[in-house]
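Entry for the shared binder. Reason: the reviewer on the internal report wants the predicted structure included alongside the sequence.
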Amino acid sequence: MTNQKFPFQRLPNDLCSMVLKTVDPHEIIAYPFTSKKALSMVRSLHIPIKKTKIKIGWPSIYLDFGESNVLFNWKMGNNEEGMTSFDDIPISVDVTTRKKSLTFDFLTMQFWPIFETTSFTWSNQEKSIVEWVKHLCSISRCERYEAEFQIGKLRFDLQSLQDTFTASAASFTCRVASGDDEGFLLSPNPGLRF
């Protein structure tokens, strides 16, 4: 058996798109990091996502694709530090995928769900948290984004928060929590609820 790599990026665009439609969601998400052409191709696929949840403070993004989901947890420091600004660059990204399938039990004559979980560690791609969020939102098509902001050491101004998320969000709900106080902040954009 040879140790040669498949020349995926040399495929014609139509074949490359067909192959991308067959791979797992986390692989589609990773592919745009290879080139601008790859990013353009993945954006053209309009990956359908049922729901996107973004948590800022202890930053993570959860992408629900229906039968599978992908969770991105950004490691901010060696001591389980939280994020202090949207411009923070994580030291690494823990990626967890979960696939749902069904198995048939002949004793009970019923289908039962089976979940397969796989974990990876990705490099930070030299992207800040804001750049990661924008990247992940830009390559997908999601009707509803949810964000939760746990404010501890995190400092941000509302206008920069709105500017960060309004460009790609069709519908966006945001909950801001600080200690015992929590609430929603309203945005002038009717599709964006803060």
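Summary line for the report: Residues 8-45 form one domain.
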